Amino acid sequence: MTCTLYICTQMHSIATLAPNLATQATYRRAAMHASMRFLLRPKPCSQIFPISPLTTQLAYRPKVHYFTPICVRLRFSFSTQSPRLDDISSLKRLGSEACKKYKYPSTLMSSVRHPFLSLSTSAKPPTPIHLQRTFIYRPFSSSSDSETNMADKRNMPSMNTAEVHKIGLNPRQIPTLSYTMQNIAISFATMIISTISLLFTASVILPLSILRSFLPRERMMLASEKNHTTGVDGHAPRNKVVLIVGASRGIGFNVLKQYASEPDTVIIAASRSIESLRKAVIEIGDTVATIQCAQIDLTASKKQLVDSIKVLDRQYGPITHLYEVSGISNHLKATSQWGLDVTLDMINVNVTGTITSVLTMYELMKVRKYGKICVVGSVAGLYSPANMISYAATKSFVNTFSSSLRVLAAPHGVEVVTVQPGFIDTRMTKMMRGQGSTVPSNEFASAEGMAREMKMAVEEGGAGVVCWPGRQGVQMHALKAVNPICEEVGKFVSMKMGLSGRKIT
């Protein structure tokens, strides 16, 4: 027996609506199959979502856009002779609840059909539900549904922007002969500089690194704190006091968990939302370290942000470690369309707020001759698709600023580490995948692994830049060596491939 449930929605709702519907149904019934696969056409690419347990297949037609109205057909196959009334009502109720809870522009159609596929005279015990979902691409038949969804469509930004989807090549974009020769010269110079860099690293830095590996760990830790005083009582700080800005989720939350098991450690978990922080701390449970929650809003004025950090330093400090993790992208909001306002918002948080908190802490640490600062940039700041224009630009600033600050801060006993994450499984990258990113799921590393690498670099020293996953960092740093013409072509090609999705950010 099968039950067929029709849901009117839009293309962007499928990836989240159907999994949530099926996941809730799982708790009502027995276990289902445990994998979920999306096939994107005309460019095949598989993405494995951590939704369990079901099996499905989704095909994008070339002319079906992100906000195209469609009808979704959910077919539930039962191995029982006939469906119980509560089974059918449960399916309808779960569909309605999912649409309401996740605020989808969706209408659950009232008709539920359950034609009998086969009849069995023998009495068999019920077995787990087998779920098959078929996606039907067609406009809404109901006029009211169509009007509602078309209104939503007008209020939401189009993913089919001309900048991303049109080629627009014209003869004026063909490089001139002199510009091409200049790029060839740049490539030759890059090869020479890269060769010198390789020889210097292999002949000078590598032997020193090998020698360092034989030194006792205790001696390295002692060297880290030698002559580092607080400027208050003339003694080195007894305990670690770790300030994590952006600790409520993602990488920052996992950094919080890395320090939670350390005794004699005070963790100041800071975020814009105190409520999110409390939920995060509750999720961790009992800890050896002392955790204090604080509100820090990177969008606040310079004076407010500086005062907030100084108050925390006086109240819980002196602060010995700063992890600046916060950052935003309009990937997080489906209705946020790229433009001047979005760009200024990203600059305000990713650049102004980040640098204000970092320099405020640096000035305090410089007086004490001791401190460790870890700033999160991104490999997108090294090389990125053209449609990551504003986000990549802000992260490029952070990469450059923090790596230069490392050199300037070294004489004052302050260590600065730049973190350049690749594709990490966070809330932002989940949204990016939902917006059409073609990056395979196995390329997304865990936020926990990223946090572990960050802590290791900060505590052990000797690492100015942390790229993780390492393979992605190597690739992005290598792409920095391309000449301007190839850089422009690469940005265009990677945008067309949809590596960062179809949204401009």
TrEMBL record:
Statement: the UniProt record of this protein carries the keyword Cytoplasm: no
InterPro entries: NAD(P)-bd_dom_sf (IPR036291), Sc_DH/Rdtase_CS (IPR020904), SDR_fam (IPR002347)
Regions crossing the membrane: 184-211
Keywords: Membrane, NADP, Oxidoreductase, Transmembrane, Transmembrane helix
Entry-linked SUPFAM superfamilies: NAD(P)-binding Rossmann-fold domains (SSF51735)
Domain of life: Eukaryota
GO molecular function, one term: oxidoreductase activity
Gene Ontology cellular component list: membrane
Function: Putative oxidoreductase.
PANTHER family, per database record: DEHYDROGENASE/REDUCTASE SDR FAMILY MEMBER 7B (PTHR44196), DEHYDROGENASE_REDUCTASE SDR FAMILY MEMBER 7B (PTHR44196:SF1)
Family: Belongs to the short-chain dehydrogenases/reductases (SDR) family.
Official protein name in the record: NAD(P)-binding protein
